[in-house]
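Please predict the structure of the following assembly.
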Amino acid sequence: MTGIRRAMIVLRAFWQLNWLEELQYRGNFIASLLGTVFWLLMAMLTVALYFRHTPRLGGWEYWDVVVLLGIFNALAGVVETVLRPGIGHLPTDVRSGALDLVLVRPVDAQFYVSFRRLDVWRLADVVLGLALSGYAFAQSGRTVSAWALIAFAVTFAVAIAVVYAIWVTLMSLAFWFVAVENMSALFDAVFEAARYPVSAYPGALRFLFVYLIPIAWTTTIPASALTGRLNPSLALWAMGVGIVALGASRLLWRVALKRYTSAGG
Amino acid sequence: MSRVATRSAFATFRDQYAELMRSAFLIDLQYRASIAIWLLWGITEPIISLGIWWSIAAGGAVDGYTREDFARYFFGVALVNQATLSWDAWNIDRWIREGEMNFRLTRPIAPIHEAIADNIAYKAPTAVIILTAWIGAATFWPAVRIPFEPGRWALAIIAIVLAAAVRAAEYLWFPYVLSFPVEVLTGTVTTGGQYARGFGGQAIWLAIWLLLYLLVWTRGRRRYGAVGG
């Protein structure tokens, strides 16, 4: 219990530090907000273009796909706020040897690397994304149920865990290959696939996104929970996937860290 | 006598180019993991788009495009996109900002040729990889076979090379740097008028950007002050 309490105290300190740093760059906030709004409009236009040619995308109506798009944007916000500035910085720290300074601290290295640096303004993307989901949900004419909301909260947490696990896995490769900064560009390209329900893809791609690169669990499942497509057993499966992903990435991190020999790998 | 002089100048230029390409290729070889990741990155987007359009076209052709047309089109996009990628703006920005332009300016060959050699060293091998994958896919997936017309392929290669040159200069000429080469490759462009419009557009944009490059380069070189612009 004391371990968790200590972690909370450290997290709070990180949070306050990052706010203090970021308050100097308020211009950034406006710029990133405008960028996100522009991106959301473009994404909705693309979906509208698809729906000119088809009444459903993988069995989903227009507003349901927009609900999913909002969730995608919220998750992208989590990536920009926590993952890219934090664990995404790992390859640079490995190459320069800056990780030395992390390893001598009396906190878990993975915890420190993951949460020390935050891009707090990008939290606005999470808010905007969820707001878009709420709006689209209202437009779809569905009524909200307590079960749907709980299932959404749980599966959204699973989604964050899965995305985090993918980033830890990709960035841990730096311990072997050193120059893997463009891994984050590769993640962005693959994660784009999560903009649409996984049922919209042909069989081979669907298999890939469900089992090999588990991005289907990040947006399709929470959106299914909101739009009444999720049965309880799948929600349990999702929790299992989240736990396995976190556990596997933690294991990989520990194996990878053993290879660390200061600057240059 | 002047004939001999021109020939040897050309030979020197050719040898310099070969050397630039060799060293660019060796650098890429050193960072092969990174190159492989960029290659994957480049084909991911066409694959995702193809997946979505493949599903949408399940009910029938979309504006005349059938599923097979989409498959061929996006395979073409994967090839043309990686051949017309452009990262030169970032390189030149770094050369100027960090003073790396200095030693390049003392060389007897203009820095643009290093950029071009660098492009060829990356794009030729990766194009071969994508083409091999395409041929492999076509053996068991008839949808992505394109008509066997070596003449058309030659034209497509010219269109791709011109597209790469225009793309390196700027980004705003979409039909000429992506869809035109792909359409030549997949056989959508057929009439003489379509060819004339496509190649004409490419030639005009290329000429405009070449002129602008020469103008900006000569002016900019005079302004250059070793580090930080």
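The CA atoms of residues 135 and 255 of chain A lie 44 Å apart. Chain A touches chain B through 21 residues (CB under 8 Å).
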